[in-house]
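I am writing to request your help with a piece of structural work I have in hand. I am sending you one protein, given as its amino acid sequence and as whole-number tokens for its backbone shapes. Kindly check, if you would, that the fold set down in the tokens agrees with what the sequence suggests. You will find the record immediately after this paragraph:
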Amino acid sequence: MNDKYDLVIIGGGLSGTALTLHLKRLGWSGRLAIVEPGVLGQGLAYSTRDPDHLLNVYAGRMGVYADAPADFADWMASRDLPWGISDFVPRSIYGDYVAARLAEAGPIDHWQTRAEGITQIEGGYRIALADGRALEAVRVVLALGNFAPRWPRVLAEHAHDSRFIGNPWDGDRQASLPGDARVLLIGTGLTMIDVALTLAGSGHTAPMLAVSRHGLLPNAHLPVRAAAPPVQFADLPGSPLGILRWLRARAREGGDWRPWVDALRPVTQALWRSWSTAERGRFLRHAKTYWEVHRHRLAPPVVERLRGERANGWLRLQAGRVASVDTSGPTLKVEIDMRGGGTRKVEVDAIVNCTGPCGDPRVAGNPLIDGLIADGLIQADSFGLITDETGAILAPDGKLVDGLYAVGPLVKPALWEITAVPDIRAQAAVLAARIAE
């Protein structure tokens, strides 16, 4: 059986939901469906029920509408919830907010399954669903969110071992680890912090070791948000090195560095688009890690907790990379090449992949994306799909693919900063306007 729609959005997490809400707000009246196996409006980030998993942005900036950043805080106030605009709220509460706004927008056809294939047909597309049904649509938007992480090459051959946890968001699997299990966490970013907090909440008592190439944790937000000074794109240096020098100069002028990093947020995507391929490469090689730990910061309560756990030895950091793992015995014998030289050998009972989402659709193992690439409808690089800045997908020949779009993290090659809510909602608003036209 085929059902025909004007628009089908594949993915019902934050990206797909934000696009839907912006379309509804514009008064777009076409027939719309969302294909999503889970609950609409949550996705991986906001489906967690762990109260220790907090938003990494002040509540007053988390509204799902591009022109109403305080909408989330207003929603909480209308329900007498105990958080205000300067608070860092549990992510589960934000998921409830997005779902509530979607429910208020009116009935939406929700196909609670996965899309496994898309083929072009006359007048649009046919979408094959995992349950054997099919949809037809004039236009399709890919809102797949983040792909699961991939193991580093040296560990990939052991991924079948039950002591290797490849999905860092599998809270049940982590909670099943014995409390005295020694755990090695691969990665020291936001994903690692989520896993560490989940383990702590489940009563885990054994020390954990987190290893990454630089061994850096994300920085903290200020307890009270400082206003970002206005910055004009035309007044900024045109190269990554120039931006680095500009930031250092602003920091030396006094005060905190955070407002200056935040000041770049409205122009970061324009800066990325203005850089040449060579300049982007230099940024990725030399500055990406340092940008991310300064740009994507942690809620102060999380930082305080981590500081305490590090002080008592429960969480340790190591700069380096895993060189080898011996899986032949009852424990995992790991050798780490330390940054700066030397090796370190540790024995652990489990290894959790906290390297963060896989950004390269070509190796993510998603059948839908694999089929689109094989059919020559889309092209991708190591960060996502090749699109224009609105999310319209470009074919391998560089021409726009009629009626095929992407929203959210998949658009990273064109926009770079497109993983946080303020960035996703802005792109959703632009794409909604394009579709509504």
Q: What stands out?
A: Residues 2-147+358-436 form a domain with the FAD/NAD(P)-binding domain fold (CATH 3.50.50.60). The chain has three domains: 2-147+358-436, 153-219+297-353, 233-295.
